């Protein structure tokens, strides 16, 4: 009975979250077309069910009502209450007129709210309720992420700092040489400006023609462009991926796109690691940075994988963020490679034909997979804390 209650409450919360996300999607036609209203509902309903199956108690007891309230408030403010009915129609794939859907929708909302109110009111019968003081005491006794860290030897720490210093010198020298070449060599200056101007037009056909104009050097130019856009240009990488597939064939294009994207990610990671780490350490507290470091050291590969699978998360931002932590390079590199592979293969194989339902299904499956990994990370962190606490208790 306890598990059924959790399943109902968290699944209902997932449905409410789906409605809220859909209401936000109405502000962006591009994202709405890319994902689809019904698919968003399926993703977050499944997400809510997965959360329920992974938990043993109802911790966020007002989450459903808060999310539902936000969705209703947003609909009222924007005058889009009617959109709830359109979302329901698309989710259930029905052609019934909106006027006929309304009574069933209202009945569903009332029943779900009444059941969830009952679940909250009878919560004490199924799990222990803590007072504010007890919750505070539990939080203080709970291990922090930084407590899970293995002690680093002083000599090892000194070696890490020396490597960073050497890396900083190499990075600054490289940037300096590049800037000198850019401003002194006219052909390089003109060529790069033309390349970015071409890609910035966001037209795949123009990019294809531009790359083909280089003949046999198109491979080198494409590789270079992918790396440069990773570092500095806010340009969608899939434009180059689609162009590579059209010029070189789908599997050769996929290899070129994947390898060049990996090189760009590695370079972003390296730049952030050698240039930004010291600044971050000065701007943040030691405890906070240690917790972030431990998270990325222990679970960073899963977090990177999640971000790479989600098509609306910037790859460049993730690479720079990972570089600011103590996450190991190879863990980052492998997770990046695995996360980028599905999208690269699909975009290369089907190219610009990935539209409509196929595109939405692909994006939806990647998102659901990423969310399931997220739940797994949260559960693993909880288990690691519990195991560490038991070890400490046994030792004392």
Automatic annotation (TrEMBL):
Residues 123-165 form a coiled coil. It is found in: Cell membrane. It comes from the Bacteria. CDD domains: UDM1_RNF168_RNF169-like. GO terms for cellular component: plasma membrane. It holds the Pfam family VTT_dom. The chain crosses the membrane at residues 7-27, 33-53, 65-84, 104-123, 166-185, 217-242, 254-275, 302-322, 329-350, 362-382. The keyword Protein biosynthesis does not apply. Keywords: Cell membrane, Coiled coil, Membrane, Transmembrane, Transmembrane helix. InterPro entries: TMEM64 (IPR015414), VTT_dom (IPR032816). It is a multi-pass membrane protein. Residues 235-351 form the VTT domain. Its main location: membrane. Belongs to the TVP38/TMEM64 family. This is TVP38/TMEM64 family membrane protein. It comes from Acetoanaerobium sticklandii (strain ATCC 12662 / DSM 519 / JCM 1433 / CCUG 9281 / NCIMB 10654 / HF).
């Amino acid at each position: 009975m306890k598990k059924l209650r959790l399943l109902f409450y968290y699944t209902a919360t997932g449905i409410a979250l789906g409605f809220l996300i859909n209401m936000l999607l109405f502000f962006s036609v591009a994202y709405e077309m890319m994902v689809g209203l019904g698919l968003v509902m399926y993703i977050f309903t499944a997400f809510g069910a997965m959360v329920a199956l992974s938990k043993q108690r109802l911790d966020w007891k007002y989450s459903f009502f808060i999310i539902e309230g936000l969705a209703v408030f947003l609909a009222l403010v924007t005058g889009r209450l009617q959109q709830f009915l359109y979302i329901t129609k698309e989710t259930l794939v029905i052609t019934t007129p909106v006027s006929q859907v309304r009574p069933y929708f209202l009945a569903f909302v009332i029943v779900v709210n009444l059941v969830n109110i009952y679940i909250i009111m009878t919560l004490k019968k199924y799990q222990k309720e803590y007072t504010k003081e007890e919750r505070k005491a539990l939080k203080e006794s709970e291990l922090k992420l930084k407590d899970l860290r293995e002690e680093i030897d002083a000599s090892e720490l000194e070696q890490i700092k020396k490597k960073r210093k050497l890396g900083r010198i190499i990075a600054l020298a490289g940037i300096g040489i590049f800037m000198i070449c850019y401003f002194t060599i006219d052909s390089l200056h003109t060529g790069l400006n033309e390349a970015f101007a071409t890609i910035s037009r966001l037209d795949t056909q123009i990019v294809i023609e531009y790359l083909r104009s280089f003949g046999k050097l198109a491979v080198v130019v494409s590789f270079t462009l992918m790396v440069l856009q990773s570092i500095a240009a806010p340009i969608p990488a899939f434009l180059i991926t689609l162009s590579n597939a059209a010029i070189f064939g789908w599997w050769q294009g996929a290899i070129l796109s994947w390898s060049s994207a990996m090189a760009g990610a590695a370079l972003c990671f390296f730049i952030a690691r050698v240039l930004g780490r010291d600044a971050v350490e000065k701007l943040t507290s030691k405890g906070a940075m240690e917790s972030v470091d431990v998270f990325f050291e222990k679970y960073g590969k899963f977090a990177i994988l999640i971000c790479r699978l989600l098509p609306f998360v910037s790859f460049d931002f993730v690479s720079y963020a990972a570089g600011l932590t103590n996450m190991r390079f190879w863990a980052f590199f492998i997770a990046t490679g695995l996360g980028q592979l599905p999208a690269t293969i699909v975009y290369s194989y089907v190219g610009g034909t990935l539209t409509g339902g196929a595109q939405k299904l692909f994006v939806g499956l990647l998102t659901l997979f990423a969310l399931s990994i997220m739940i797994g990370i949260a559960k693993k962190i909880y288990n690691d804390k519990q195991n560490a606490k038991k070890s400490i208790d046994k030792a004392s």
